[in-house]
């Protein structure tokens, strides 16, 4: 009986050490400090955006007399006069339309072509598939600056230099390698049994792509679309090289306004804010799909 009791005592788990009051307070303070730190970092990151928004709602005289933070003590400075001047500025409004005409087609083309190519490299058998994919991936290391002058000369010979179509084609060409690489790796994780079951039901490759692969690849496609949209919308280097006065996007138009009319801050501030807030709106609109695409494959 004594031996049995001894064995039971040995098998019983040892009682957990009670956490001291100081350790519990330190643990709670640690979590609180982390949250406070993250909130402060977020607010600090938003300061330039808030400052630009407030500056766009102030008159030029108020901006030259004091900083934007004085609006918290004198809210009467706020006015929509700068946005009225912006809408009356034909160069800015036309450049904003050019930005949309460049960004939307370049994003759609990269997503569509990249999806088709990614599916082909992931699930279709054709001669030299792996070598072709290796060649596409190798294009990721080619810097944009290297191709600017040769492609500009080529576009000049075929009549595309200075046109919106030329800028769209350039962004599409340089966006496709990353798109194919991203989507091919994502599509390759789709279970083979699911595709084989669809083929047994009589689905062809195009129907299989549209009905099975595209819905499953929605998060990755949304992430790619957001990346491409932000890259093209915020681009200035390619637009400086390939556009003319009538085809300039908003980034080049604002830079031209600064160079020619350095004192028209009442147009530059709202124009810069609109140029920045549209990509932010697109990102937050597709934030859930973006997070799903980034986390895809992280947890099996």
Give an overview of the whole structure.
With 300 residues, the chain is mainly alpha-helical. The chain has 15 helices and no strands. The chain has helices at 2-11, 21-56, 60-65, 81-87, 90-123, 129-138, 144-158, 164-187, 192-200, 205-216, 218-233, 237-242, 250-260, 265-285, 287-295. Helix 2 (21-56) crosses helix 14 (265-285) and helix 11 packs antiparallel against helix 14. The longest helix is centred in the first third of the chain and has 36 residues, at 21-56. The radius of gyration is 28 Å and the shape is globular. The model has no long low-confidence stretch (mean pLDDT 80).
Q: SSE order, as H and E?
A: HHHHHHHHHHHHHHH
* Helicity, as a percent range: over 70%
Which geometry do the CA atoms define?
globular
**Coarse structural class:** mainly alpha
The main β sheet shows up as: none
């Amino acid at each position: 009986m004594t031996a049995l009791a001894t064995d039971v005592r040995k098998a019983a788990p040892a009682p957990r050490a009670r956490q001291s009051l100081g350790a519990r307070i330190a643990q709670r303070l640690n979590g609180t400090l982390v949250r406070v730190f993250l909130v402060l970092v977020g607010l600090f990151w938003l300061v330039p955006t808030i400052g630009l928004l407030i500056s766009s709602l102030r008159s030029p005289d108020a901006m030259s007399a004091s900083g934007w933070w004085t609006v918290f003590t004198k809210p009467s400075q706020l006015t929509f006069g700068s946005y009225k001047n912006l809408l009356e500025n034909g160069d800015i409004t036309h450049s904003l339309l050019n930005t949309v005409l460049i960004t939307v087609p370049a994003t759609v083309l990269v997503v569509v072509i990249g999806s088709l190519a990614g599916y082909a490299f992931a699930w279709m058998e054709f001669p030299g598939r792996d070598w072709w994919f290796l060649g596409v991936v190798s294009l990721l290391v080619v810097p944009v600056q290297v191709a600017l002058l040769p492609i500009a000369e080529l576009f000049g010979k075929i009549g595309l230099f200075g046109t919106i179509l030329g800028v769209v084609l350039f962004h599409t060409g340089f966006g496709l390698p990353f798109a194919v690489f991203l989507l091919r790796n994502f599509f390759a994780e789709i279970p083979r049994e699911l595709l084989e079951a669809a083929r047994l039901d009589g689905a062809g490759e195009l129907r299989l792509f549209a009905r099975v692969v595209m819905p499953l690849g929605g998060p990755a496609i949304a992430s790619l679309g957001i990346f491409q949209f932000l890259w093209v919308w915020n681009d200035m280097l390619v637009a400086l090289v390939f556009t003319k006065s009538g085809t300039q996007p908003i980034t080049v138009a604002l830079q031209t306004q600064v160079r020619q009319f350095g004192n028209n801050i009442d147009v530059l501030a709202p124009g810069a804010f609109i140029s920045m807030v549209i990509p932010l709106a697109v990102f937050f609109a597709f934030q859930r799909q973006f997070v799903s695409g980034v986390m895809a494959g992280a947890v099996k």
